[in-house]
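Support reply, case 0932

Customer input (verbatim):
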Amino acid sequence: MNQEHAGARAATADFLAHWALALYYSGVPKSDIGRQVRQIYEERPYPTPGQNFVAKSRQQLPPFEWIRSMCALRQPSPKRILVAGCGTGAEAFALQKRFLDAEVVGVDFSSSSVLQAKVLQKRVVPGSQMRLLVGDLIDRKFMSSLGNNFDFISCHGVLSYIPQPARALRNISRCLGAGGALYLGVNSAAHFSAKGRPALRALGLDVKKLPPERELRHVLRLCDALAVEADGQKAKLPLNYLAGDLFGPLIHNLSLSRWVRLAQDAGLVFAGHYYAFKKVRGAINEGLLDVLRPRSRAEVHMLIDHLDPCGFHQMVFLEATLDFANLATKTHSEFARSRDFALPDYADEKAKTPAPEELTNQHPRRNRFNGLGRSIS
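Our regenerated output:
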């Protein structure tokens, strides 16, 4: 099957899955679905506070240096940060520790989660002026009350689980200040729940509600044993993670192109995809970068998602009205001369095609992304 047919098939499957989900819930008021989702996190706030839960949270996020490079941020550190869907606060705490002088605002629709976050705030980031608020991302009035001048907004693992992600994206976009960036982490069409939920239904479980833990883990052990790809032991995942990522009234598992279209409708410009960014390294190492020219960065990242979809999208976006929003439309001939290729993940001791000389001189030729990730501490 050629690339065009494969892409068409993936797009058709993605559309049909989204259409089937919309049809299934067409008779259910969105407010009822929203209440069901909220109840999950009221009963099981996420992430579970515990040892190193802040460190684990920052490891899930792309390095801020990568975000800054993709979006050509004008200032080295953000002054106002919004964590949209902060849960029990781990991500907000990590960002506050990384950017000590920044004003960090965390919002979540679960009052139980925010209450836990406020208790933890005194221990994890004592003395900080961080604000933690209960509010719904789809409530335009509430979101407008937060202001429209955030330099950086992070929304990780949230929009895949709420009934109106497009509406939430529009509200989030309105909070973004001039020159700011949005990081968005959402499920892809290849997320484990895309196969997991149908399998659980076939095994007699109701995916709309969490079964008794013993029964669930017994069934998941069977799924792990039968899995073709060894992508982790699902039976060993925390129960509150499974409650939201595998069970519940709805889960939006969409392709990169679908999420980008939703963001574009909200007035945002796609600037980059972290997984795809790292995959380009393979083309450089094999001396195949010329095949990608003259495609833009956005086009290349879309292509990679078709060829090798990941389970979770980590994307960055800019305002569509910004003068430098055309950054994402750079061709790869321009791209290779820009700072995009200065980042360490594009340098490797075994690389057959090195980065441009002037960029190579700026960074050691080794992979430092793990170190950059740990810099948010």
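We compared this against your earlier run and they match. Two observations from our side: Residues 192-246 form one domain. The longest helix spans residues 3-24. Please reopen the case if you see a mismatch on your end.
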